[in-house]
Amino acid sequence: MAGALCVLSASLTFAILGAVVKVVSGSLNNEMVVFFRNFCSLFFILPWIWYSRPLGGVRTSYFPLHLLRSMAGLGGMYCFFYVIAHLPLSEAFLLMATAPLFIPIIAYFWVHESVEHKVKGAIIIGFVGIIIILKPGIEVFRPVAFIGLGAGLLGALAMVSIRRMSSSEPTIRIVFYFTVFGTLISAMPLIWWWQSPKAEIWWLLVLMGLLAAVGQLLLTKGYSLAPAAKVGPFSYSNVVFAMLLGWVLWGESLDFLTWIGAFMICIAGIITTGKTETHALVGTTAGGRVYTKDARRGKTR
Q: pLDDT digit string (tens) for 14-23?
């Protein structure tokens, strides 16, 4: 119960983070929003990293994998924040929630994890749900939704890359490298696309970093208290919270086909979360997920 409550609280935190991103995206470009999310989050996460002091400090023999994980996660964040700015909040979160559908496919080709028949069926159901949401061939088809799928695919790549180094890399070290790399890499585009934030939104930029850090701490705690197969499905509540926030703040609503597609994607994601070895996912829907448990051995990483 405690683990589920932590995951639910994290999901609400991430949904609020998405709403804040949508607000600041009205006056700042995507490059600025991504940078400030990482930069401000770094200041809130550093005390956690210092307090945790991972075994061996930050020295690592998996530097290339840390870099790959950071690049994939950051790419997913750029896509996700762009979609938040251009689609209803709930649809943006729903498209990002497709990541578990891509994980078994990537894991099969990269780390040679077997795929159960139930998972194969769930993947098919999930992709049918995606097609229903994208609505190809009809008037309301929106190409920007493919960027949302890109966010899910890059997020899945980041998760599987963590799987490759989870045997020796503690959670806190993975968080450290992602936060630092994310801040440094996202600062580079600002050489060309810097904008001076308006005075009235500075507090929102700081709030983004705080929400990202708090959400990550809550989700990490949730997955440390209970098996991922039991608490993982609660992470899909961020779609519900995002739908409520979108309705209250912007009057957004989902059409009938999107509801059907959402149901199919969530059911498929829950099945893959419970049935695949690479499934203990912790962190933000904006590119900060990390593993804490091995599904086969049940050992905390």
A: 999 999 999 9
CA–CA dist 88, 262 (Å, integer): 13
Rounded CA-CA distance 40/33 in Å is 11
Burial 246-263 (b: 16+ CB within 10 A, else e): beeeeebebeeebeebbe
Q: What is the pLDDT of residues 276-301, one digit of tens each?
A: 555 444 333 333 444 444 444 444 33
Pair of tokens at residue 259: 């509801």
What gap in Å lies between CA 244 and CA 64, rounded to an integer?
Answer: 40
Tell me the H-state helices in 170-300: 171-187, 190-193, 202-225, 228-231, 237-250, 256-275
Host H or E run for residue 49: helix 30-52
Contacts of 216 (CB under 8 A, 6+ apart): 10, 45, 175, 282, 283, 284, 288
Question: Which residue, among 92, 123, 142, 89, has the nearest Cα to 251 in the 3D structure?
Answer: 89
Cα–Cα distance between 58 and 145 in angstroms, integer? 37
pTM score? 0.83
- Give 290's strand partners: 282
And the tokens for 271?
A: 């099945």
